[in-house]
Amino acid sequence: MHMIPRHAGRALRVLALAAPLAWAPARAEPAPELPAETLTTAGIDAAAGERIYVADVAISHIADGRIRVFDARRGRLLGMLSTGFVGNFSYHPPTRELYVATTYLSRSSRGERSDVLEVHDADTLAFKYEVMLPPKRAQALNHRGLVTTSGDGRFVLVQNATPATSISVVNLEQRSVVAEVPTPGCWGILPSASHGSRFSMLCGDGRVATVTLGENGQPVGREVSDKLFDADADAWFHHAERVGDRYWFLSFQGTLTELDLGGPVALVKGSRSLVGAAGRKSGWRPGGYQPFAVDPTGAWLVVAMHDKGQEGSHKRVARQLWTVDLATGQRGATSPGHKAVALTFSRDGQRLHALDGEAGSLSVWQWGARGKLKPITTVARAGEASTQIESHD
Description:
This protein has helices at 6-23, 231-234, 277-281, and strands spanning 51-56, 65-71, 77-92, 97-105, 113-121, 127-133, 147-149, 155-161, 165-171, 176-182, 186-191, 198-203, 208-213, 219-224, 236-243, 246-251, 255-260, 267-273, 285-286, 292-294, 300-306, 320-325, 331-336, 340-345, 351-356, 362-367, 373-379, 386-391.
């Protein structure tokens, strides 16, 4: 039997342990560290001057509402603004600013509540500044008239509900809330054009209340009209269309009423039904959240209509779009409804826009004589739960 000396065996074990180390490949040099990314923002394409704002309450993730901005000619998404928890907004063309009244909770769905008015540059969507609001802002679906500017642009008026109703008056120059106007039983903000610090509201008893503000934003006058509608028999939609001090309101059964809201008391200028005897027999009624639009000249009205209407169908999507001559009350054209729940004209009157209440799509048409509509573009998914649409231009 061959014997290995003790010292030789020890040497072999050392070699066996060292051998793998000798055969291991050399360690590669670490990869160079990637440069740090810098987050930036970009302004909206200046060439896309024709724009549409679509407000989306985002019900399935309601703390994360937004406004999407689309190119009205090509349907491209140009940008987006956060509107927080059930925020409402308005656009003020003279200052080219967007005003968003919204709420934030410190823990997203719970925690300390902060209500704010946020001011954004409409050209770039950049945030400019904010004003803290009393924690009572109305948390409601997107509707025109829940936050808006006074006629002279000095104040932003914000609807409150606790559920007691009032209006917060924000002085933009001072960047502070300067007054709270109690408005029991009344809702919405309808500014006067001819009086810079006057606004009106629809009231549940069928009247219209008008408030006049003083130089410092405090209320100095309040007048109430005669009863103009019966909320039980045929309520009015909260949505209104305006040209200057002319405001149009539509009832659930299709009666159109024009008011002059320039003075200290609302004045009725005219009223007529948009639905004839045959239409009433078939149950034709208006429906939606922004159910009709008036062109900037005050000559034409387009309304989203559905048949087989009944009590409670006032939010139903459109089966037809009716064009009505406001001077004569005669229908000028009838078009497919595109399941519209919101309508608005561009501010130059060249386009009509509609939001589909089921698919969330956006349709844009060129406006023609007597209501002839020529398709411009569509957006298949403009929002998840969108009820308000406004034009930039």
